[in-house]
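Interim report to the steering committee. The following record documents the input for ABC transporter ATP-binding protein (363 residues).
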Amino acid sequence: MSGFRTLRMSEVSRRFGTTTALDRLDLTIEGGEFVALLGPSGCGKSTALNCLAGLLPLTGGGIWLDDERIDGLPPEKRGFGMVFQNYALFPHLTVRKNVGFGLAIRGVPKPELTRRVDEALALVELADQAAKLPGRLSGGQQQRVAIARAIVIRPRLVLMDEPLSNLDAKLRLQMRTEIRRLHQSLGLTTVYVTHDQEEALALADRIVVLRGGVVEQIGTPEEVYAQPRNTYVAGFMGYRNLLELPVTGREGGRVTLAEPGLRLTGVARDRSAGATAVAAIRPDDFTAGRGAANPLTVTVEVAEFHGRETAVEGVTESGRVVHVRVPERVRPGEKIELSVPPDRVLVFGDGDHPPRPGAAGAG
């Protein structure tokens, strides 16, 4: 595969009429890197991918592959492979012909085409399905055909748009591992669109969190998971408890928030000095039992058995809804004692960071 050193998106924007779907995206991707674009529907992640692919023209900015500007090139001239959410296979062509389609239209000689298709099918473990039509394959097998078709052309960049969203939970896990294995073994550079934070954390070298067409944070999975920039990113990365409370004390990098029946001390994530702040806590960061640090009592309203633990939605004395995970079975109406270490409570003084005015995502 012909590689590259860097791919650079500089102030890339895309508008649809008066709606800004992507607003001045700056992103540099290193050759061999796996980058996930993460966010909810309408955040601009698929728009960014389609701009990269050449399926959407830019309305601002530019895209460079090393020193070559490519945003004016048609899709077929960019040398990228793409895997779609709906697989986009030709139903009337066999698996072999689907995989070899891109090579055929490039005029690759038949002996080389056959060899490369055989290699790609072997990589995705579908050699024994080569003569079948896509309609006779499972969803996971169809997705493997789509991946084989993308990599057989030896692309400089592989673009994946929510490729696992149509699969069941077990297949998603299997295909997630398969995608990472192929990325590593083939030395691919991959840009992957997803709304699933677990997928992004498991697959990516770096994560780009988008909202309303604007980048909220770029970082390694570890950085985005443990050090979210604001409450929007925190909520997306598993901090399900976002509790806005009055500020009652500050000391160094610690902030204390309190209301009747609930007092929390946590780590300040910004320097804002408002009268209220937001405490962000993951459900699994609570410890069952009343400890010295941040003790609280919760009345169970909903309990879901998850095997080794129970997911609980409960309420505090003051009526705050809290989501926790505890090791024992509990039932609605029970009171449970909890605590949470202060370094697991992130405090955002000004709460959310809104997107730029006029930014509203599409895809």
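Residues 169-186 form the longest helix (18 residues). The committee is asked to note this result when reviewing the revised timeline.
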